[in-house]
Specification:
35% of the residues lie in helices and 27% in strands. By secondary structure, the protein is an alpha+beta fold. The protein has one domain: Beta-Lactamase, CATH 3.30.450.20.
Length: 155
């Protein structure tokens, strides 16, 4: 009987320790967090130049991937300069990129920043955290020939 009590206690302790080691899902990022990330990225772009900034933006440990947020950058023609969410997109033409409902995302970002240096674009995109297509808002800043942005999900 003493052995069985010890075994149960050991199993309970092991179960508690194993669940404590599993990280809880982080809350979705906020609009303010996305805006702050973009502002940090724009400052870095200004300070380091496009080549150095693109390296940092594409690097998961470069400081520009935070929780479910990442920086993306398009040049004036709509070509990816960087994507912290998927660095392999760098160099690809995204001018015709559309969301799940057919909305031309990059064109909307260009329009949103044509008269103002910053804007927000809403679209429908795959949330890799939930693996669901959800509404996303991206905060975009036009810096010279570049559009610098980061998006947050609203569902």
């Amino acid at each position: 009987m003493e052995h069985s009590r010890f075994t149960r206690a050991a199993l309970l302790a092991a179960a508690l320790l194993s669940t404590a080691a599993v990280p809880a899902l982080a809350a979705p990022s906020t609009p303010d967090q996305a805006k702050a990330l973009v502002q940090d990225a724009v400052a870095y772009l200004k300070a380091k130049g496009p080549a150095e900034a693109a390296k940092a933006f594409n690097d998961p440990k470069g400081g520009f991937v935070r929780q479910d947020l990442y920086v993306f950058v398009f040049d004036k023609s709509g070509r990816y300069v960087a994507s912290g969410g998927n660095p392999s997109l760098t160099g690809q033409d995204a001018a015709g990129l559309t969301d799940a409902e057919g909305k031309p995302i990059v064109q909307e970002m260009q329009k949103a920043t044509a008269a103002n240096p910053a804007g927000v674009v809403e679209y429908v995109w795959l949330n890799r955290s939930s693996n669901k297509v959800e509404h996303k808002h991206s905060y975009i800043v036009r810096e010279g020939d570049y559009l610098v942005g980061s998006g947050y999900y609203t569902e």
